[in-house]
Amino acid sequence: MMDLPARLEPVLAGLGYELVMLERAGRGLVRIFIDKPDGITIKDCVAVSNHLTHLFTVENIEYERLEVSSPGLDRPLVKPQDYTRFAGEMVTLKLRVPLDNRRKLVGQLVALDDGTVKLAVDGKAVSVDLRNVDSARLKPAV
């Protein structure tokens, strides 16, 4: 079986988009989240969906339904470069192993430095090993 995200990343980059995340769900659903610096519109989703429908047919990639969408305001941070790109933003981290009896941290993302996520939580510097991050998302302003 081919590594679908690795196959799609250069295709989407060529179209001007970033592959944020790919999910395979039941009944042949392939869900793809895309982004670009100035945001995603419905037109972007339609264009990518049409392009990938043709690509999947040509490359014989099995799927029943394809969904293409924006990652949303609470965009997940998936790749190490996401932590650099969104430095200065508010984030929510869910941890695999608690840190000071907390599995969830909300704070300002300072940096990713040598595999360590640096945050400012309630005015205090907090460091979390990236391997201990179960999920990370931007925290939209209220």
Write structural notes for this entry.
The chain is of the alpha+beta class. It has two domains: 4-69, GMP Synthetase, Chain A, domain 3 (2-Layer Sandwich), CATH 3.30.300; 80-138, Ribosome maturation factor RimP, C-terminal domain (SH3 type barrels, Roll), CATH 2.30.30.180. Helices cover 25% and strands 42% of the residues. A five-stranded antiparallel sheet has the order 7-6-5-4-8. Helix 2 links the parallel strand 2 and strand 3. It is elongated.
Observed structural traits:
25% helix; GMP Synthetase, Chain A, domain 3; SH3 type barrels; 142 residues; 3-stranded mixed sheet; alpha+beta
Number of helices: 3
Q: Report, as a whole number of angstroms, the end-to-end distance.
A: 42 Å
What sort of overall outline do the alpha carbons produce when their principal axes are compared?
elongated
**How many runs of DSSP E, i.e. beta strands?**
8
Q: How can the largest sheet be summarized?
A: 5 strands, antiparallel
What share of the residues does DSSP label as strand, in percent?
35-45%
Low-confidence stretches: none
